[in-house]
Write a structure and sequence with these properties.
By secondary structure, the chain is an alpha/beta fold. It folds into two domains: 68-137, Ubiquitin-like (UB roll) (Roll), CATH 3.10.20.310; 140-274, Cell division protein FtsQ/DivIB (Rossmann fold, 3-Layer(aba) Sandwich). Helix content is 41%, strand content 23%. The strands form two sheets. A nine-stranded mixed β-sheet has the order 6-5-4-7-8-9-10-11-12. A hairpin with a 4-residue loop joins strand 5 (149-154) and strand 6. It starts with 12 loop residues before the first helix and ends with a strand.
């Protein structure tokens, strides 16, 4: 015997609508609770961030404005020829009493290099109130006769200043009349480069150098310690024949007598001009 299937009882239209309205009300309540929860979290995080920012501002104000970090001492190190007291006084006039965290260290480096002997400087803060400056000094490479006055120059052609205790029996570069600005610097660099090349290629000859004259365009006139004839060297290959001259100079003098000049510019050949009787 078959049991007849029961048909599902469908809710009336009014009841269906009531359920949808009830569901919407529940969903709205849940969404409201979530929004309230997220809003609380956001506000809490904002308060925490605000506290951190406030604390950072307070710490920054203490660091950059507090008198406990005022600069009191400048310590300049590794000076031999540079004026330590001069550098310290120059820095003190500008920075003494200022907050140690507010000063620009690169600016202090630049001010330290205003001393002509200072090639470079490194600066460090030493808490609570000391600025330490370590300098690298220039090394004089030659003496240059500029405008009739002897000046020390380094390997870069930088004019350090007038000669004094730093001359150290350095060779003299002459023949610079009429040169100035970049042209003078280029000539000084060229002269120092020749000296360095001779020191490597002909060290015994370089030790005897007294003067290099650049007044002529096609040769460099050299004088040596202890006198002797003028030596004409090749500006493109300054070391050409100088070692041969050292080996043969006495024999050439014995044979030719007193010499006016010796021309060393030619490959495998030494040209001499004896003094007129």
């Amino acid at each position: 015997m078959k049991v007849p299937k029961r048909r599902p009882v469908l809710a009336g239209l009014d009841q269906k609508y009531w359920r949808r309205k009830a569901n919407r009300r529940v969903r709205k309540q849940r969404l409201t609770k979530k929004l309230i929860g997220w809003t609380g979290i956001v506000l809490a995080n904002a308060l925490i961030a605000g506290g951190i920012v406030f604390a950072a501002l307070e710490a920054s104000a203490k660091l950059f404005g507090g008198p406990e970090f005022a600069i009191e001492t400048f310590r300049v190190e590794h000076t031999q020829r540079a004026s330590r007291s001069g550098i310290e006084e120059r820095l003190a006039r500008r920075y003494a009493g200022r907050n140690i965290f507010s000063v620009n260290l690169y600016e202090i480096e630049r001010m330290a290099t205003l001393d002509p002997w200072v090639l470079a400087a490194s600066v460090k803060r030493v808490l609570p109130g000391t600025i330490r400056v370590r300098v690298i000094e220039r090394r004089p490479a030659a003496v240059a006769l500029i405008g009739g006055v002897a000046h020390l120059v380094d390997r870069e052609g930088y004019v350090i200043g007038m000669t004094g205790t730093g001359a150290d029996d350095l060779p003299v570069i002459t023949g610079l009349s009429g040169l100035e600005g970049d042209t003078l610097v280029a000539a000084l660099r060229r002269g120092v480069a020749m000296l360095e090349r001779l020191s490597v290629r002909a060290p015994l000859f370089a030790e005897r150098l007294s003067e290099l004259n650049f007044s002529e365009p096609f040769h460099v006139t050299v004088r040596t310690i202890g006198g002797g004839p003028r030596l004409l060297l090749d500006p493109e290959m300054i070391e050409r024949n100088v070692n041969r001259w050292l080996d043969l100079s006495q024999a050439i003098r014995d044979r030719a007598g007193a010499l006016n000049y010796v021309d060393l510019r030619w490959a495998q050949r030494i040209v001499v001009k004896p003094m007129r009787p």
